[in-house]
Design a protein that fits this description.
Helix content is 29%, strand content 33%. By secondary structure, it is of the alpha+beta class. The chain has a domain of 125 residues: Aminopeptidase. The chain is globular, with a radius of gyration of 16 Å. The mean pLDDT is 97.
């Protein structure tokens, strides 16, 4: 598929470009991103360029993953990324990572809501998916809060369900189905 650009009132979601490498390095080296994602450590310009030119572009070209840069409409600086990946028979997984400058403004929730709308929309306007799931290390409460605001339904806690940086961690799983009402935040069980 050719890369698409999605828009909201405040954001432009477009394919990361080679000129975004500095911004990718900035958020990939944030301690919270390192703590909860699989970004390589250390992460420099070579890794950013490889991710943009090989992973992102190849994903779009082969329909195996669709990554979007999250940009404010007023300055178009890359604040982070959101992507769909792990496609399997009408389902996919959503993941996101954002620079500290982009946190606390609702940008990630807004971007994820738009990507989910696109994922569930029938072709040719969207992907026509029936399920999008989210997974995260159980202590990643900011990511879980976004998933709740998106209306994703809690599906479980996988005890020591994920290996990350040489240790096993509990993992939370939530998902939305195409026909779910995602208009209100969901309530999840207390951890």
């Amino acid at each position: 598929m050719d890369p698409v650009t999605l828009r909201t009132d405040r954001l432009v979601l477009s394919i990361p470009e080679p000129g975004d490498a500095e911004d990718v390095v900035a958020y990939a080296n944030d301690p919270d991103v390192i703590a909860y994602t699989s970004v390589p450590v250390p992460y420099g310009h070579a890794e950013a360029r490889q991710w943009i030119t090989e992973v992102v572009r190849t994903g779009w070209a082969t329909d195996t993953r669709y990554d979007f840069g999250i940009r404010r409409t007023d300055d178009l600086r890359l604040l982070g990324t959101i992507g769909l990946f792990g496609f399997d028979g009408g389902a996919a997984e959503v993941g996101y990572a954002v620079h500290p400058d982009g946190r606390g403004h609702g940008y990630t929730t807004e971007a994820a809501r738009r990507v989910l709308d696109w994922a569930f929309a029938p072709a040719p306007e969207g992907l026509g998916l029936v399920r999008v799931q989210w997974r995260a290390i159980a202590t990643n409460t900011p990511s879980a809060a976004i998933a709740q605001r998106l209306g994703l339904r809690f599906e479980g806690r996988l005890r020591l369900g994920v290996a990350h940086r040489g240790r096993r961690h509990d993992q939370l799983v939530a998902a939305a189905l195409r026909d779910d009402d995602r208009s209100a935040p969901t309530i999840w069980p207390a951890s």
